Amino acid sequence: MMNLYGAQHHILVHSNAIDAEAHQHTFIQVTIALENHFQFEVQGEIISTAGIVLNSNVTHRLQGSGQPLVLLLIDSTSSIAAAFKQYMGKQAYANLPPVDSKKVAEFIKVRLPQIHDAECYSLFLQEFMTLFQLDYTPPAITDTRIKELIQHMKDCTDSEHSIRNYAEQFGLSSSRLSHLFKENTGISLSGYLVLHKLQKACYLIFQGTSITEAAVAAGFDTPSHFANTSKRLLGMTAKDIRKDSVFLQVSSLH
Is residue 127 located within the same domain as residue 72? Predict the structure, then answer.
């Protein structure tokens, strides 16, 4: 069984089938074991851990198949990522102390099943951050153009996700729109679009759409592009995602 939670600056995955080959990505990654330690390879070093925070662009491999894990992939430009970067310092990764790992795991096991909407998830996330002794306050969106853009992407019915086209709709340059988006949301527009496309494809698959059609509709160049993105970021193929999975959109921006 796998549950995916799609938020504006991250994806949270709860699964016992996460097993990714060696790779790296631009996201901050937080991985928590809910039962036993798991094997995590970082830059060639194999670590046995119950919880780890990984910096962006660090080569790693996660061997967690068969045991329940929670994985967060966080846009590295977001305010929540900045908090975890502060937690890591200048290190490539930071292991959670056993006591903290157990406390976080127990919290997740109790609270995660209770989430059914964006408001519940927002409270869950803030309490989750508190367990790491990190401050996180969601940014307030004040620019009506950014509010309109986010609503447009939420309601999108086509596969076009070009920053240039979005910018032209508001009479702005691509760089100006990207700056306004980051200023209002705390995340990069390009990072948001990657998560948006991945979440949209997953949602369509869970609605019964074929993997090929879902990939194209979400804006991926080809089905293999979606498959590679899914495997690289989530550690699972599109076929793996389709098996006995549930997707919940919990973005407060949405």
Answer: yes
* Number of domains within the chain: 2
Q: Last residue of a domain, which of 96, 111, 132?
A: 132
Taking residue 183's Cβ as centre, other Cβ atoms within 10 Å add up to 13
Is 137 within a domain? no
Q: What is the pLDDT of residues 197-254, one digit of tens each?
A: 887 888 788 778 898 999 999 889 898 999 888 877 776 777 777 765 676 777 644 3
Check if the beta carbon of residue 39 is closer than 8 Å to that of residue 63: yes
CB 143 within 8 A of CB 180: yes
Taking the C-alpha atoms of residue 102 and residue 32, their distance in angstroms, rounded to an integer, is 9
> How much is the pTM?
0.76
Instruction: Provide the CATH number for the domain around residue 76.
Output: 2.60.120.10
Question: Which helix or strand (DSSP H or E) is residue 46 part of?
Answer: strand 45-49
Contact between residue 61 and residue 40 where contact means Cβ atoms under 8 Å apart: yes
- Structural contact between residues 96 and 53, judged by C-beta atoms closer than 8 angstroms: yes
Cross-sheet strand order for the sheet of 19-23: 19-23, 60-63, 38-42, 45-49
Give per-residue pLDDT as tens, 119-162. Answer: 899 899 989 999 988 876 666 788 999 989 988 877 776 677 78
